[in-house]
Write the structure tokens for this entry.
Amino acid sequence: MKLTQRIVLLLLLSTPVITGVTLLVRQNVFTDGRVGRGTFKKLGEVRVEGPIVESESIVRQLQLLHEDRSVAGVLLRIDSPGGATAPSQEIYHAVREFRSGSKPIIVSMGNVAASGGYYIASPATRIFAGAGTLTGSIGVIMTVPMYRELAKKVGIEMQTFKAGDYKDIASPYRSMTSVEKKMIQGLLDDTHDQFITDVATARTMDVDSLRQIADGRIFTGRQAVKAHLVDTLGGYEAALSYLRAITGVGSAARVINKRESSLKMRDWLVEESVRLFPHLYRILSPIGMHCLAVFE
């Protein structure tokens, strides 16, 4: 192969990688917030939309944004009616831990941020909601469907074999005993108490005062401000403007996210760049770039 052909082939093979590295540098992916001698601060955004059924992706995004020193603060956009207890609690603790650091986390409530949606919002630095946003609903619910009569009509009979008196508690094929109902109610009451205690702690509210309105009722955003469940009336842009103001990043600062799909692509580009060009890391390190540690 002639020298000219080799050069052309090398350029063709290296162009995608060089382009990727350039984009990553521009987006501050390698960095701790410094590129050369300049400083580029950004804002992070995390979205919780729909029922809360898992927490891993949200918690991971918050952790990465907390570790990224180029991120000055985070906007948490919530549009959720709530969901499962355990993931709601995990996100709550992740938000609370984020706030305990030096970066603010501002909540912007969408159409609805109720029950678990409010739970995860409560530890934020400041909560924004629209006047018509539906929020609150500090309560716990468990619904048990009963299929026994329907099963009889279609000729189905269920036989249960169990080890443990309460293993089939809340079975849809039999009525619960008074003892079992009391056990279920105790479970719900304990979960409700955890909900109230966590919100009171996050919002620095008196537990007994909060308990008076923590009966599952729903509030509009305007009512929630009066009840001290929300801090400010305003939409997404108002919350973002507030975050820009308190972090001092200005209107030109980009808003980024750490969603899994984009992370995987960036991670691949970093790994391939360093693999193909081993000296790249040494070249970039003197100007504050630590590409191998960003995604750990």
